[in-house]
Write a structure and sequence with these properties.
Blueprint: H1 4-18, H2 23-30, H3 44-56, E1 65-69, E2 87-92, H4 95-106, H5 116-126, H6 133-140, E3 141-146, E4 165-171, H7 174-177, H8 181-192, E5 195-207, E6 211-213, E7 219-221, H9 227-236, E8 239-248, E9 262-270
Parallel strand pairs: 1-2, 1-4, 2-3, 4-5
Antiparallel strand pairs: 5-9, 6-7, 8-9
The structure holds S-adenosylmethionine.
Binding site for S-adenosyl-L-methionine: 26, 31, 70-71, 76, 92, 97, 148-149
Pfam family, one: NNMT_PNMT_TEMT
Organism: Dicentrarchus labrax
């Protein structure tokens, strides 16, 4: 295991990689076909949306406040949750990503991706009419806040009610901002402090990934995770695993923007 000072420099090095993150390119790489092909059942994005839809609608996830950890420039991860929770907080480390999300929230035409097919797809899963979905999402997103999962207190101290959030969702964040497995596990513990006991964590992430491109020439290192490591880290950080699902990337989803081999979805409860 790394010593304290090496870990601090590893975290600082990760922050430096993110200074060149390009939201428009990242959206293009990961949130357009083939990775977001709604005609294909084996495309990554429909798989993620189906996992989230199921997890939010099993009856055990409830409360008022949902917090998305490391939202990036994306919204797909809260499209099901926005029907269950009356308040949704989005968070990201980078101002460029928070700005991208604000463009959508303010509907000012400045977005780098049209989320309409995503909203339509989730409405289909929910058996709901599409016309109110965007308005509903804009109504429940109450803020877009800065976050650093490497701090024991990742959000500003007054950002959440003292009881904590009722549910956290986090997608492709912790493994792609941590210098090593120990930092990943610590970050899981840090975000757990934002969650009330008994609250749920819905965690999606990359398996076997050692890097991804956050923009042209912006190669960001990732902690390559196995399913067993995800389960161990959750346990070590004070969560009880409810379910782990795994998706294996078909060959034609390996489009040269990362070396990910699979995706995990974990539903867990804070002890
Ligand atoms: C791979 S992106 C994931 C974005 C989005 N959640 C998704 O599903 O595509 C990783 C995100 O983590 C954010 N990030 C970087 N350093 C972070 C930190 N220390 N704490 C929290 N988020 C961080 C980045 O700005 C980026 O938006």
């Amino acid at each position: 295991m790394l010593s304290g000072s090496n870990t601090a420099s590893g975290v600082a090095a990760m922050a430096a990689y993110y200074q060149r993150f390009d939201p428009a390119a990242y959206l293009q790489y990961n949130y357009t076909p083939p990775r977001a092909d709604f005609e294909r059942k084996d495309s990554i994005v429909p798989w993620k949306l189906a996992c989230l839809h199921r997890a939010f609608n099993e009856g055990d996830v409830s409360g008022e406040l949902l917090v998305d950890i490391g939202s990036g420039p994306t919204l797909y991860q809260v499209l099901s949750g926005c029907e269950v929770f009356s308040k949704v907080l989005l968070t990201d480390f980078l101002e460029v990503n928070r700005e991208e999300l604000k463009h959508w929230l303010q509907d000012d035409g400045g977005c780098n991706l049209d989320w309409t097919p995503y909203l339509q797809h989730v409405c289909k899963l929910e058996g709901r009419r599409y016309d109110q979905k965007a308005a509903k999402l804009r109504q429940v997103i109450t803020d877009i806040l800065p976050i650093d999962v490497h701090r024991p207190q990742p959000l500003a101290h007054d950002a959440l009610p003292s009881a904590g959030a009722d549910c956290l969702v986090s997608c492709f964040c912790l493994e792609s901002v941590s210098p090593d497995l120990a930092a990943f596990t610590r970050a899981l513990g840090h975000i757990g402090r934002l969650l009330r006991p008994g609250g749920h964590l819905l965690l999606i992430g990359a398996l076997g990934e050692s890097y991804y491109f956050g923009g042209p020439g912006v190669k960001i290192p990732v902690v390559p995770l196995t399913e067993a490591q995800v389960c161990d880290s959750l346990k070590e950080s004070g969560y009880t695993l409810i379910r782990l699902e795994v998706y294996t990337l078909p060959q034609d989803m390996r489009v040269g923007v990362d070396d990910v081999t699979g995706v995990f979805f974990a539903k867990a409860r804070k002890d």
